[in-house]
Amino acid sequence: MSHMRKVDVAVVGSGPAGHVAAIQMAKLGLSCVLIGPEHSGEDGRTTALLGSSVPYLQSLGLWDAIAAEGQALRVMRLIDDTGRLFKAPTTEFDSSEIELDAFGYNIDNNRLVATLHAALEVQDPEHLIQDKQFARSVRLEHDEARIEMEDGSIWQARLAIAADGRKSIVRDAAGIEMRKWTYPQTALVVNLHHPSTPHNNASTEFHTKTGPFTLVPYRDGVTSSLVCVVSDDDAERLKGMSRQALALELEQRAHSIYGAFSVISDPQTFPLSGMIAKSFYGPRSVLIAESAHAFPPIGAQGLNLTLRDIATLADVIRENGIEDPGAEEVVQTYGHSRRSDIWSRTAGVHMLNMSLISALPLGQGARTAGLALANMVPSLRKLTMKAGLDAPTKIGWSADAMRKSEKHS
Ligand SMILES: Cc1cc2nc3c(=O)[nH]c(=O)nc-3n(C[C@H](O)[C@H](O)[C@H](O)COP(=O)(O)OP(=O)(O)OC[C@H]3O[C@@H](n4cnc5c(N)ncnc54)[C@H](O)[C@@H]3O)c2cc1C
To answer: Does domain 183-272 have CATH number 3.30.420.40?
Structure first.
């Protein structure tokens, strides 16, 4: 007979989302297994953690170690580089305008996962177990989730959390369909050194006809991570260039705002697509992160939205009592509570992206008018900044919590 073990919660998928979800479940006092292989450490991306992500990670005792690895984002600069008729004004948002020390922090993904992993290792092993292999299959029954591992062993859990990414096998076991779409764009990510000009904790997003070209503070005052969204062919061309030629071309695209670049990492490419689950729960299961929602890397939304998935799940489990974290009422309440935030972020990112690449003047005009108004009307300006950071329900909460935490630090 195969080896069977029981836990309250099985988190399937060991990326950043899975790590945070597992730590959160253990902190609720539930026994939990985190299923999935060790991180490769080869992710060239960085993640800007914004808004309510900061106080939420603080509440889990994770924030100080994460922030120590990142760079504060204090200014967000948007520059219209589309060369189109309706040109938006250059817009600069400063976190001090909404009484925050910073909008958030930008962290190297490898360091983020390593930091989360170190935090996971020191959790009570009674509550948090790691099983560093792939799950082979998942069965969701009325009273339990059964997860069969590659070695044939089985985990029985009252709740399975799908953090296993776009091709989630937990989602497939729940029979949840996805809406999927693609964009004619690829994101090229690479890290750059610009010794002559410091970034001064500002991120700069050029809006181009093929998508955003965004420089975000990276490891110190004179390095930035770049997300450059271009056509698929252009991304391949840039990726194939020598480091010297690439540095020169990227400097031109950045209009030399930081002077000369040198390329300090191998460029990686990510074809852009979108997907959203038709439901965010199934029997004995909930979907979080990219098993539930994925969209282009515009406005740094993906993992921030995921952290709100996990925070909401924790709230619902707390409210219902921890005896049965996978009860129908829990998974249903979670699924319904996440709808508006996930749908509105997905639609917002889609519309912003389309307003850049579409040849139709309507979308371009709306983006231009929106930024012009945000420049002129102070209350709208503050609202735009807060809306960029969080879900509407979290805006007041996150700003207050961030301010409180700054006072105490
Ligand atoms: C270029 C780019 C820039 C981005 N920038 C930002 C940003 O600034 N801010 C932001 O909030 N978001 C950003 N995002 C989005 C963010 O990177 C993703 O939301 C995040 O990496 C997803 O993490 P995850 O843990 O959900 O998924 P993944 O990292 O994909 O993790 C899924 C995990 O599941 C594991 N797995 C899969 N199948 C199984 C199985 N059968 N059994 C066990 N384990 C399994 C995999 O091995 C993997 O470890 C960006 C995305 C891109 C492409």
So the answer is: no
Cα 57 from Cα 38, distance rounded (Å): 22
397 CB within 6 A, ligand 1: no
pLDDT tens sequence across 383-401 = 777 776 666 555 444 445 5
Question: What number of other Cβ atoms are within 10 A of residue 160's Cβ?
Answer: 33
Ligand 1 lined by 45 (C-beta under 6 Å)? yes
> Which residues sit opposite 287 in a β-bridge?
162
pLDDT at 393: 58
Pocket of ligand 1 contains residue 60 by CB under 6 Å? no
| Distance in Å, CA 15 to ligand 1 centroid | 6
pLDDT tens figures, 16-53: 999 999 999 999 999 999 999 999 889 999 999 998 89
- Residues 404 and 207: their CA atoms lie apart, in Å, by 34
C-alpha span between 54 and 22 (Å, rounded): 18
**In whole angstroms, how far apart are CA 26 and each of 99, 102, 125, 256, 327?**
34, 30, 9, 48, 18
Give the span between the Cα atoms of 369 and 87, in whole angstroms: 9
**Domains 4-70+104-180+274-359 and 183-272 agree in fold:** no
CATH 3.50.50.60 fits 4-70+104-180+274-359, yes or no: yes
pLDDT per position as a tens digit, 172-192: 999 999 999 999 999 999 999
Domain limits of the chain? 4-70+104-180+274-359, 183-272
pLDDT band, very low/low/confident/very high, at 407 (cuts 50, 70, 90): very low
User: pTM of the full predicted structure?
Assistant: 0.91
**Torsion 388-91-259-72 (CA) sign:** negative
pLDDT tens, position by position, 85-115: 667 778 888 999 888 899 999 999 999 999 9
Which strand ranges, in their side-by-side order, compose the sheet holding 71-73? 46-50, 104-108, 71-73
DSSP for 247-291? HHHHHHHTTTTT---EE-S--EEEEEEEEEES-SEETTEEE-GGG
Mean of the pLDDT values across residues 132-142? 97
CA of 398 to the centre of ligand 1 (A): 23
What is the separation of C-alpha 308 from the centre of its chain, rounded to a whole number of angstroms?
10
Q: Tokens 């008729």 map to which residue? A: 85
Q: Which atom of ligand 1 is nearest to the CA of 106?
A: 8
